[in-house]
Amino acid sequence: MSTRELVVLGTASQVPTRHRNQNGYLLRWDGEGILFDPGEGTQRQMLRAGVAVTDVTRLCVTHFHGDHSLGLSGVIQRLSLDKVPHPVHAHFPASGAHYFERLRHATSFYETADLREHPISEDGVLATGKATLEARKLSHPVEAFGYRLTEPDGRTMLPERLCEHGISGPDVGRLQREGRLGSTRLEDVSTPRPGQRFAFVMDTRLCDAVYALAEHADMLVIESTFLAEDTQLARDFGHLTAQQAARVAAESGVRQLVLTHFSQRYPDPARFLEEARAEFDGEIVVAEDLERVQVPKRRSSPADHPAP
User: Fold this and answer.
1) DSSP character for 3?
2) Which phi and psi angles does 48 have, rounded to 5°?
3) For the chain, which ranges sit under pLDDT 70?
């Protein structure tokens, strides 16, 4: 059975606290393991969360501030130490390629892993397959990109309908590929299966890209560094408030909102939930370190999951 979940490795902005590690998020998506923004301490958090480095198939870095990237050195070296057998693709802003190079080779080690670098210089598709990974440029003091994973809509075959039409074995696959088998159309023996959408938005002011990434996401993981009382600070430093993040979710048709990247100035995480709840009536998760958050089940029909 496929697994789609977010493993939260760290939720603190800028510096770790007694209860929160620096950033780190592993998205399990069927056979993929996408590690977003590994901050300092990520390798140990992976151990505590029961995540093996062999689970990682992609590294996605939004930008090169330390709380989003200082864990790269340890994770990259661990890929070789544990002899990860598959290629690992690394996506990061091209303007920070020199930082990635320094972090990749921060110390001497015997490099055997197949780590493939893919610097990002503009908005666009990064990878295709069973789902499409794309990036969009955000608004932060250093160049930053958000990520979006989109599964195409498909169809679920109905065994009883296939039986009625006398279709079985290899003919089922042929019908799926070609859309028609004799007088039987694919839609005669199947039902629409909406694809799922995941968005990852870290350090940024409000901008068009935030909404584009969030549009109709089943799960939106988004920074909420500040509370509304500090909206001007958020704008000055290139961040969002919990209120702004929740409004984005409400206006973009998001199903599940995951708030993270909290400033240490706020000791009570319940305030983030309270502020977000006033703007968004969907599911809200105020992320905690080592938490596992399930991607919501598929929407029941394409009508519930409008096209962008």
Assistant:
1) -
2) -65, -30
3) 1-2, 301-308
Tell me which H or E stretch contains 99.
Answer: helix 97-104
- The pLDDT of residue 210 is 98
The residues that bridge with 137 in the sheet, in sequence order, are 145
How many residues belong to the chain? 308
What is the predicted pLDDT for the residue at 301? 62
Helix (H, G, I), strand (E, B) or coil at 137: strand
Instruction: State the pLDDT at residue 298.
Output: 86
- In this predicted model, what pLDDT tens digit does every residue of 110-124 receive, in sequence order? 999 999 999 999 999
Instruction: Compute the distance between CA of residue 80 and CA of residue 83 in angstroms, rounded to an integer.
Output: 5
Active-site hit among 37, 67, 218, 289:
67
Single-letter residue type at 298:
R
Q: How far is residue 17 CA from its own chain's centroid?
A: 24
Phi, psi of 224 (to 5 degrees): -145, 65
Strand 88-93 versus strand 115-120 pairing type? parallel
Nearest CA to 103 out of 134, 131, 127, 71 is that of 71
Angle at 280 between CA 274 and CA 282, to 5 degrees: 105
> Reduced to 3 states, what is the DSSP secondary structure of residue 269?
coil
- Residue 166: which residues within 8 A CB-CB, separation 6 or more? none
Which structure tokens are listed for 103?
């972090």
Q: How far is CA 279 from CA 99, 174, 216, 235, 288, in A?
A: 38, 47, 16, 19, 21
pLDDT of residue 52: 97
Residue 264 and residue 36: Cα distance in Å, rounded?
21
Which pLDDT score, from 0 to 100, does residue 303 have?
56
User: How far is Cα 198 from Cα 196, in angstroms, rounded to an integer?
Assistant: 7
Distances 132 to 112, 195, 282 between C-alpha atoms, Å: 28, 11, 25
pLDDT of residue 302: 58
Is 236 known to be catalytic?
no
Tokens describing residue 255: 């199903």
CA–CA distance, 211 with 132 (Å, rounded to integer): 18
